[in-house]
Amino acid sequence: MINREKILEILKQYHFDSDKYMVISGAAMVLYGIKEFTNDIDIAVTREYYDYLLEKYDCKFDCYDSNGNKCYYIDNFINFGLKYYSNNKDYIEKIPVQNIFEILKLKKELNREKDIIDIEKINKYMLINNLKIE
After folding, report:
1. Cα separation of 14 and 72, whole Å?
2. Which residue, 29, 85, 112, 131, could crosslink 34 as a Cys pair with Cβ 3.0–4.6 Å?
3. What residue spans define the domains of the chain?
4. What does the buried/exposed string (b/e) look like for 17-53 if buried means 16 or more CB atoms within 10 Å of the residue's CB?
5. What's the rounded Cα separation, in Å, for the pair 49 and 37?
């Protein structure tokens, strides 16, 4: 399990270009303080950065996303793909992070058992922080 400090430590080691990636899903929730741990660090990247990461690192195939694009792992910690990248992001300690509303949208789209639990946590976080669904 990876906590907030470990996520920040790992990402800072890679020196990723903050204009070309963003932390998404469970790892983003950990960075926001919505949950304590995650199993991996999911990031979404631009097409250009996707190709760059494949060339730079020894990437291992993970799965196909719902658009048919391949997702890969870097060093068994960082899972990357194209599908959820957008410019609608926040920054936490200089790390680009998926906007909370986008995380909620992603979790609703995936709708797995663990996502339903995460949706409840996000809704509670939004209520406490007086955030309204867009």
Report:
1. 16
2. 29
3. 4-98
4. eeebbbbbbbbbbbbbebbeebebbbbbbbeebbeeb
5. 26
Q: Is 74 left (phi over 0), alpha (psi -120 to 50) or beta?
A: beta
Residues 6+ apart with CB under 8 A from 14: 74, 78
Whole-structure pTM value: 0.94
- Which CATH architecture best describes the domain 4-98? 2-Layer Sandwich (3.30)
Rounded CA gap, 54 and 95, in Å? 21
pLDDT in tens, 70-113: 999 999 899 999 999 988 899 999 999 999 999 999 999 999 99
3-state secondary structure of 24: coil
What CA–CA distance (Å, rounded) separates 85 from 94?
17
